[in-house]
Amino acid sequence: MDTIKFNQRFDTIESKFEMFIKDQEEFSKKILLKLSLASKQLYTKPEAAEFLGLNEKYIDQLTHHKKLKFLKRKGQKFKYFRKEDLEDYILGTGKEDDDDDFEDFENDILQKF
Which of 69, 72, 64 is nearest to 84 (CA)? Predict the structure, then answer.
């Protein structure tokens, strides 16, 4: 009887320890990504989404509606984003010409998500 309880407790502790290790690994990866983003000047779409704290699909919408600048070579599939353009977007000093139009656009996109 005591052996069964001990084994159950041991299994519980072991599974919690494994979950803790997994959480720590995920946390470490996120911290390393954030640190690496701080030193980069050119970002991929996933990195830009992480930098801005937005969904990648939302980044696609912003670029489609020309609200966020991006770089793309002719014939190339991937979009790249300059750090200063991302910062301009955050500060509201980016590509948008009309603030009301931009707010309407953002509200429209947010309703879709």
Answer: 69
Contact predicate 68/59, CB 8 Å: yes
Measure the CA dihedral 66/71/73/74, to 10°.
Answer: 10
Which sequence spans correspond to the domains of the chain?
1-39, 41-113
* CB neighbourhood size of 34 (10 A): 11
Q: For residue 42, which of 85, 77, 90, 1 has the smallest C-alpha distance? A: 85
Q: What is the pLDDT of residues 89-104, one digit of tens each?
A: 999 886 545 555 666 6
Tell me if 72 sits within 8 A of 78, measured CB to CB.
yes
Full-model pTM: 0.58
CATH architecture assigned to 41-113 = Orthogonal Bundle (1.10)
